[in-house]
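Researcher: Here's the sequence for the chain we discussed earlier.
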Amino acid sequence: MKLILNISPARTAMILGWTVFLLVGMNVLVQLIHYRTDYNELYGVYDKFNLNNEGNIPTFFSGIILFVSAVILAVIAKVKTGHGYRRHWVGLSVIFLYLSLDELGRMHEWIGSLFARMVGVTGMAAWYVWVVPFGILLICFAISYARFLLCMGPKHRGRIMGAGALYVGGALGMELVTAWHALNNQSDSLSHAMLTTLEETLEMAGLVVFVYALLEYLRCHAEAIQVHLVSPANHE
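Model: Thanks. This is the structure I predict for it:
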């Protein structure tokens, strides 16, 4: 049996965008209640929607989008078989697979703590020092992928770079801002929670734009995605 998948990039982005809007809205609501009322934990609801927490609904959502991005990138790499930049698409797929696992497992914090011990950073700063090694990796990535982006069509390049700017602006840029705030102010405060909210919102918005950009790119380079399902009997 042959199955042809018809996916609308705009509709997919709209669904993901509304999901981000609802998650951010719930986070803002529980943060306001947490810091402005006596119902601090909201019977467990606070932990489930706090964007700065691990293993909750927003974390799972971001991990899934990162994994979906890795799958789409793998499909594009398959479509680009024989193309000079196919390995770049494969590399991106591997990177986003790692980012998905990192989002769900917070591996960057473990790497950051290891790096902090190596350079002798202690205290609150140790929680944020991970931006240094990952910032260096980001620079290396930008250099190695510069030609790849320049050879891409301007419309696709603009979308992908815009998505990257949003995601990196949240993951690294706002992380530096929240680090400064945490080191110079009270980290357990509504103002710090709102900075974290902005950070995570930028990351999720960047992922939504990235998925849209990838689907549009795939739509322009492949007529349809065909999935062939073969039964064991027919295979034999």
